[in-house]
Amino acid sequence: MTSLKLATNNKSLTGEITIPGDKSISHRSVMFGSIAHGETRVTNFLPGDDCLSTISCFRNLGVTIEENGGELRILGKGFEGLTEPDEVLDVGNSGTTIRLLMGILAGRPFFSTLVGDESIAKRPMTRVTGPLSKMGTAIDGRKNGAFTPISIRGGKLNAIHYELPVASAQVKSALILAGLQAEGETTILEPANTRDHTERMIRKFGGKISKEGQTIRVEGGQRLSAASVNVPGDISSAAFFLVAGAVVPNSEIVLKNVGLNPTRTGIIEVLKNMGAELEIIQTEDDSFEPAGDLVIRTSSLNGTVIEGELIPKLIDEIPVIALLATQAEGKTVIKDAEELKVKETNRIDTVVQELKKLGADIEATEDGMIIHGRTKLHGGVVSSHGDHRIGMMLAIASLLCEGEVTLENPEAIAVSYPNFFTHLESLIH
Ligand code: S3P
């Protein structure tokens, strides 16, 4: 573990950056390329640690994947082309890899074991192992299938109707991937709209899936065909620079190629509600994944309330939204966000603990946090806790701090944004 001394305040942020590929879509491009028939090409793939874990798992399942600086060539042979791995499948830090992979392996007639790092070992898996058992797969793990290591002996699956107890795209996607291999039609009721990249990807690969009201329907036994996937930039990565541009004095940042899927744009709604000077230039509006360029300027901001159905549309952005709120006039309340407790870290605790060290007026609640602004931040020694989004939020916070900030364990940032510091430095003037 290393630590990094970060730039202090009195700087402005100006210039243009191209946001790296979306993490959720990059994972799915590898998975769908592997379970489809034929040669899939992926461009603007995110070569972050999490997505590289997905590639390594699928290589262990017998799929040929060539990776060359963000471009992939995947030789898919259908679900039936996957073969029993000789090694334990290691998902590293990636919740998306393990949960979606469970859905794929549930229908495969062989044995596999899944493990990950310390953080993965604490994250709840019953939400996936429970419904997959109901579909007929032999799946188990520590504490009755609640935690890694997970073992699966897949096989014939029955379609089920399942009402998701939590709004989770990972759980929904695992059940869709199992449903594609099941006998009959699987229906999934989601309590709120969550990111729909899996559904869009199925259509891209020639499959069918529908949604009426909150119910998703998918038929088993579909044959998917290879596709060309161009991954848009990750709005969850762009979020750090959107916040930075809004709060650092005399700033104007252009963010190129940001994914604007409406299930992910909660951060834009919040910035607008708080009064940010944000311009959106939509450049790509195809049926796959919309994308566009964003321009953000230093803004005067007011507090807001973030709750309900907005939460799944910005769940990963809450750490940096908390920082944003420290620079807004008045009170910001974030509620209905208990899912934060089971992310890479307990993000209610890690956000509150680390921002307090820099002088923020922030308190944890049962399902979120309350922030009073506007506060001057000061220097200190802070930690990412091994969580990429906490690390990036703190690096952005350092731009506002009077005094030096030392960030412990900055390496975690490579999970989703390997060139984060290069981009940040290129904007500082
Ligand atoms: C993701 C879904 C979300 C999100 C995660 C990526 C996905 O998790 O927090 O970073 O790619 O499906 P949940 O489904 O647990 O909410």
From TrEMBL:
GO terms for molecular function: 3-phosphoshikimate 1-carboxyvinyltransferase activity. CDD domains: EPSP_synthase. Keywords: Amino-acid biosynthesis, Aromatic amino acid biosynthesis, Cytoplasm, Transferase. Pathway: Metabolic intermediate biosynthesis; chorismate biosynthesis; chorismate from D-erythrose 4-phosphate and phosphoenolpyruvate: step 6/7. The active site is at D316 (proton acceptor). It catalyses: 3-phosphoshikimate + phosphoenolpyruvate = 5-O-(1-carboxyvinyl)-3-phosphoshikimate + phosphate. Pfam families: EPSP_synthase. GO terms for biological process: amino acid biosynthetic process; aromatic amino acid family biosynthetic process; chorismate biosynthetic process. This is 3-phosphoshikimate 1-carboxyvinyltransferase.
